[in-house]
Amino acid sequence: MREPAGTGSAPGTELRPVLTSVTEVYRTMSIDRVPVGSRAWIVAIDDESARHQLTRLGFAEGADVEVISRIPFGPIVLQRRDRQVAIGRQLARRVRVSV
C-alpha cells in the first residue's frame, strides 16, 4: 500500500504490507519432503478438497505432526497425538509445513 503521489512523504517511507503470505514468515515445504522422524507444523493446505480430507482425519492447519515413515513411491505415514495415518504422495504435496 503506498500513499498517493504528491502527499509529501519522504522517499522509502511508503507503507508496505506486513504479511503477504505464510511462506514469507515461515520457511515452508511440502510434507513429502520432511525427513522421517521429524516433527512439523501444518501452516497451509493448498486446496479445499485436500483441506477437507485431512481435517476429517484430524490433520488441520495449525496441527503439529511427525513423519513416521515414507514408503518409496508409496504413502507417507504421519502421526498426530496417538493417531497414525498414511496419506498418498499427491495429497502430501498439497500440505505446506514448517519444520
Describe what you observe in this structure.
This protein has 99 residues and is of the alpha+beta class. It has a single domain (28-98), classed as SH3 type barrels, CATH 2.30.30. 17% of the residues lie in helices and 31% in strands. It has a six-stranded antiparallel sheet with strand order 1-6-2-3-4-5. It is globular and about 25 Å long. The relative contact order is 0.24.
Q: In CATH's first tier, which class applies?
A: Mainly Beta
Cα-atom radius of gyration: 19 Å
User: Spatial order of the strands in the main sheet?
Assistant: 1-6-2-3-4-5
The N- to C-terminal Cα distance equals: 31 Å
Biggest sheet, in brief? 6 strands, antiparallel
* Beta-strand segment tally: 6
Determine the CATH topology.
SH3 type barrels
What is the mean pLDDT? 83
Number of domain units: 1
Which stretches are poorly predicted, pLDDT < 50 over at least 5 residues?
none
CATH architecture identity: Roll
Indicate the overall shape. Answer: globular
Percent range for β-strand residues:
25-35%
Residue share in helix:
10-25%
Estimated structural class? alpha+beta
Oligomer: single chain
Number of helices: 3
**Order of SSEs, N→C?**
HEEHEEEHE
